[in-house]
Design brief:
Blueprint (H helix, E strand, L loop, with lengths): L6 E7 H11 L2 E2 L1 H11 L1 E11 L9 H9 L3 E6 L1 E4 L5 E4 L3 H11 L5 E5 L6 H9 L3 E6 L10 H6 L2 E4 L4 H4 E2 L12
């Protein structure tokens, strides 16, 4: 499905990829991910999309966002919206679908192959539009989790489905253990 002279771009729905990898029990090594897709074609762009919670002193995703930006990824962020649901629970919403779609459509005339790291069925019309412009589309997600992390209509629309679990040995690293505090006597 990949050809060495393909002009390639990857579009990573950060929250979706994180959830899929977590459901499979591993973390993504983004340096290895970039190297793998650089090897599969001429990697034009590697986009990473995520919403950031503003006003917090420390955001757990900030070090990753900074590393990605420094290491050649086009990082697209926007402030997450915080709200309280009907049960009084604090929720965070940060949908990046429009930003990802606009970037993919802008880049489409200069691409042969787009790789979407997301299982979100809302991207089916984007895949269809890219295909109409002659761009092959691969989708990376998982059907091996319970429930599957990819919408069936997205998987069916893609030219190629890549099972995230099959990439585990190539782009994965074991999840980090949370350090336990030790009391000193």
């Amino acid at each position: 499905m990949f050809y060495k002279d393909d002009r390639l771009a990857i579009f990573i729905d950060g929250a979706n990829l994180y959830a899929a990898a977590k459901s499979l029990g591993f973390d993504i090594d983004y340096k290895l991910l970039r190297q793998e897709f650089d090897r599969r074609g001429k990697l034009m762009r590697a986009y990473y999309y995520t919403a950031l919670i503003e006003g917090e002193e420390y955001s757990p995703i900030r070090p990753l966002v900074d590393w990605l930006h420094y290491n050649g990824f086009c990082v697209v962020t926007k402030p997450a919206k915080e709200y309280t649901d009907s049960l009084g629970r604090r929720k965070v919403k940060g949908n990046m679908d429009i930003e990802l779609t606009v970037n993919a459509m802008e880049l489409a005339p200069r691409l042969d192959h787009a790789v979407l790291f997301s299982g979100d069925g809302d991207f089916r019309p984007l895949i269809e539009a890219l295909q109409r412009r002659g761009v092959r589309v691969s989708v990376v997600s998982t059907i091996r989790s319970q429930p599957p992390m990819i919408a069936d209509e997205l998987r069916r629309q893609a030219d190629n489905f890549i099972e995230l679990d099959a990439l585990r040995d190539i782009i994965g690293r074991p999840p980090r253990e949370t350090p336990q505090t030790q009391d000193e006597d």
